[in-house]
Amino acid sequence: MKRAIITGVTGQDGSYLAELLLKKGYEVYGIIRRSSSFNTSRIDHLYQDPHNQPKLRLIYGDLTDGGNLSSVLNDTQPDEVYNLAAQSHVRVSFDQPIYTANTDALGTLRLLEALRMMKKPPRFYQASSSEMYGKVVETPQTERTPFCPRSPYACAKVYSHWQTVNYREAYGLFACNGILFNHESPRRGETFVTRKITRAATRIKEGLQDKLYLGNLEAKRDWGYAGDYVEAMQLMLQQDKPDDYVIATGQTYSVRQFLDEVFGYLDLDWHNYVVIDPKYFRPTEVDLLQGDASKARKVLGWKPTVDFKQLARMMTDADRNIARNERLVKEHNK
Ligand code: NAP
Ligand code: F7E
Questions:
Q1: Residue numbers annotated as active site
Q2: Mutate to test the pocket of ligand 2, among 103, 182, 196, 290 (most ligand atoms within 8 A of CB)
Q3: Which residues of 249-263 are buried (b: 16+ CB within 10 A; e: fewer)?
């Protein structure tokens, strides 16, 4: 039985990856940081087994604490480590650049150093990002496209990306970068634009709110489904040789088109509800991302199964259920 550690297990991707690895028969440890309120809603169904058999095991840890990472690794001796933990919000990284670098850049280095010291270092997956392409120099972007990061988040991810390559080349670690383009799901954090839109549109439909405040509607992204993307992470660590892969759908759409899709599906006209609020503009914006995942298709046999329309509808359906329940509770409490 393979043993894996996932950092960032409470996040969107961590929850889908934990599900996938458990389904494949792995023993899975998730690193979770202490919080003053519950932060495990995405993984509650994975460790609350009806027969009291913990399936997913949780260990306290933090990417800012190198000693802790080392002891977790030495205590568990995993075969695979998936580094998904990050301050992952691009807009927030402009407000908290140093914290972002500490977690997203130095955090990866702490983990790589801890791995390097092990007698038998496990295979390592690093969550690289299409944000590294930033002010893109070519479209679509491939593994060979130069990076031009446009935010503290992206700069930190570029650092981690190259450290991962360097630890592979200098120390022979089996270390892979997955350069993942935007991927979403009903479990996406509520402040990322797709989820913000599906939540607001469904709450508007249920009469729970009447305005949606957004920033730049012209930005274009290559949006895929998180459930598909975690499969690529696992596949990368099963190859004979470590390498870096772009994971993307190859299609790009604007925020405006996402609004059309979601509000249109609910028979609403978003122009009646959306207000542009400059506070959501970024000091530097990434205008267009579109990935070419040919290498992943060829080497890993990976391809996306959910397209833009299906993704928008899946997220809208899930949020419509949440909004309906919210309305019913509100009516009941009147
Ligand atoms: P997410 O939902 O924001 O989850 C981030 C996870 O990291 C959470 O579990 C969070 O814990 C944890 N975390 C944050 N700071 C930490 C720290 N200092 N120590 C330990 N854990 C910490 O992100 P996601 O969308 O699942 O993305 C997963 C990874 O892929 C991230 O590295 C992200 O930057 C990268 N990525 C995401 C996308 C995308 O489109 N989703 C694309 C490319 C790359 P709490 O729950 O306690 O906050
Ligand atoms: O923004 C625009 C915003 O925050 C997408 C992270 O997972 O993917 C994600 O980063 C676009 C941007 O995602 C609002 O300006 C307009 O152009 O959903 P987002 P992101 O910045 O692309 C990459 C690949 C990651 O690696 C990151 O971790 O939408 N936008 N109005 C808005 N964005 C937000 N959040 N909120 C708005 O009101």
A1: 129, 131, 153
A2: 182
A3: bbbbbbbbbbbebbb
Q: List the residue whose alpha carbon is closest to atom 32 of ligand 2.
A: 193
Q: Supply the residue whose CA is at minimum distance from atom 29 of ligand 2.
A: 193
pLDDT at 313: 98
Q: What is the pLDDT of residue 52?
A: 59
Q: Residue of the nearest CA to atom 33 in ligand 2?
A: 193
With the most atoms of ligand 1 within 8 angstroms of its CB, the residue from 64, 84, 93 to mutate is 84
Q: Which domains does the chain have, with CATH numbers?
A: 3-184+223-247 (3.40.50.720), 193-220+251-288+308-332 (3.90.25.10)
88 in contact with ligand 2, CB cutoff 6 A: yes
pTM: 0.98
Residues of the chain with pLDDT under 70: 48-54
pLDDT in tens, 11-42: 999 999 999 999 999 999 999 999 999 999 99
Looking at the CA of residue 282, tell me the nearest atom of ligand 2. 15
N- to C-terminal Cα separation, the chain: 53
User: What distance in Å separates the CA atoms of residue 21 and residue 18, rounded to the nearest whole number?
Assistant: 5
What pLDDT score does 50 carry? 58
Alpha-helical segments (H) within the chain: 12-23, 44-47, 66-76, 90-95, 97-101, 107-116, 152-171, 193-205, 226-236, 255-265, 294-295, 308-333
- The phi, psi pair for 146, rounded to 5°, reads -65, 150
